[in-house]
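In this supplementary section we document a worked example of the pipeline. Step one takes a protein sequence of length 143 as its only input; no multiple sequence alignment statistics are reported here. Step two produces a three-dimensional model, which step three serialises into structure tokens for compact storage. The input and output of this example are shown verbatim.
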Amino acid sequence: MTQSRSLSKWKARHAVLVWIGILLNFAFVLPLIFCPEWILGLFGITVNQLIWPRFAGLLLGILSIFYIPATLDIDRYRVFAWLAVFPSRTLGTVFFFLAVFVFGQPIGYLAGVFLDGSIGVATLFCLLRILKLEQNISEGRQA
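The serialised model returned by step three reads:
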């Protein structure tokens, strides 16, 4: 397989993973906005004021929309692809990890760790492979 063909496959893999992350985010966005008690109850989380989970859901939706440009043209919107990993997915993972293990929040918040962490690591791996293949191609090296 040629390096440019392999590069195209890694870019496609990255786009698919980012879209999976967007869809997983929206699995939380819509319930958080329209029925926050139900979705939070699934994770054993109770809240007193529903405005904050609704607002968090809205912000998550807005954030997820900013992931889309890099899936459409990763060469043009490369910075969006990196920002989706650092700080977005990374800080989401760290925030929920600390919330549970340092600040004693309900274990249901670990869903945020698994969601952001798994998508973040997978897309980071794709970005690193893309970067390596681009360097090899620019230097005329074979795999």
